[in-house]
Every structure is written in structure tokens, then in C-alpha cells.
């Protein structure tokens, strides 16, 4: 009985833990490299995507893939090649969103997804 109580307690604790997004979306980046006004909902226009890896990239380019989230699937909208320094582990790039909607952004390295996050664009 006590074993079940411990398992139930752990399940409740861990279900409340929210994973931080792999990619931060921000209104800009400060000179020290931290994002300004980061979030998941923005008005139409430009924003900065910030990605920090736990290890150096080890490649000279990453591919950013932007999908529009639809009811039953995601529709690929754009691919952006991002040049990076192989020894770095932090990358930033500007992204433009001029249509309202829900989007999924993935960062790929050698055809494998290494980071992803969702955002919503509204027109105020």
C-alpha cells in the first residue's frame, strides 16, 4: 500500500512539471544574448528565435522548418538555412509571421530534429 502511495505522489509531482520549450521566441535579444519579452503568443511581424544546445552544434548549418498547424496535420510553410559555428551551442535568427495562426517550428541537424516549439500569431 505504501509503495502505491509513493508512486501516486511521484506521478502527481511529475505531471505538474512542464517541460521548457526547446526554442524560445522573443521580441529581441539583448547584447549579452538573452531573449527579451519571450513567449508563445505574438502579434504579426518579426520575432527572434533563440536556441541553446546542451553541446556544440558540430555542423556549419542548421535547417529551420516552419509548419502551419492545421486540424489534422502540419503543413510545411518554409525552410530556412541557418549558418552556425560548429563550436557554438547558441543560435538566433529572425522569423517573420504575417498571417494569424498556430505554427510549429523545428530545428533540424543532418535531417534529424534537435529542437521544436509551438507559437501562436494573432493580429491586433
Description:
With 124 residues, this protein is mainly β. Helices cover 11% and strands 53% of the residues. It contains 1 helix and 10 strands; from the N terminus they run H-E-E-E-E-E-E-E-E-E-E. The protein has one helix at 2-15, and strands at 23-26, 28-29, 35-36, 41-43, 45-52, 61-69, 74-83, 90-97, 101-109, 112-122. The chain has a 5-stranded mixed sheet, with no helix packed on it. A 3-stranded antiparallel sheet has the order 1-5-8, with no helix packed on it. A two-stranded antiparallel ribbon has the order 2-3. The longest helix has 14 residues, at 2-15. The chain is globular and about 40 Å long.
Brief digest:
The chain has 124 residues and is mostly beta strands.
Compute the gyration radius: what is it?
17 Å
Order of helices and strands: HEEEEEEEEEE
How can the largest sheet be summarized?
A: 5 strands, mixed
Structural class: mainly beta
Strand content: over 45%
Count up the helices: 1
Secondary structure: helix percent: 10-25%
Q: Describe the global form.
A: globular
The termini sit apart by 54 Å
**Uncertain segments:** 2-20
Strand order of the largest sheet: 4-10-9-6-7
Number of strands: 10
**Whole-number mean pLDDT:** 85
Amino acid at each position: 500500500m505504501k509503495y502505491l502511495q509513493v508512486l501516486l505522489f511521484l506521478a502527481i509531482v511529475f505531471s505538474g512539471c512542464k517541460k521548457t520549450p526547446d526554442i524560445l521566441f522573443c521580441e529581441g535579444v539583448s547584447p549579452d544574448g538573452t531573449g527579451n519579452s519571450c513567449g508563445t503568443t505574438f502579434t504579426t511581424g518579426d520575432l527572434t528565435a533563440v536556441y541553446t544546445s546542451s553541446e556544440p552544434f558540430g555542423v556549419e548549418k542548421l535547417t529551420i522548418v516552419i509548419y502551419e498547424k492545421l486540424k489534422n496535420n502540419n503543413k510545411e510553410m518554409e525552410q530556412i538555412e541557418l549558418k552556425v559555428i560548429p563550436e557554438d551551442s547558441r543560435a538566433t535568427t529572425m522569423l517573420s509571421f504575417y498571417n494569424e495562426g498556430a505554427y510549429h517550428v523545428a530545428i533540424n541537424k543532418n535531417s534529424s530534429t534537435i529542437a521544436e516549439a509551438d507559437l501562436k500569431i494573432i493580429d491586433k
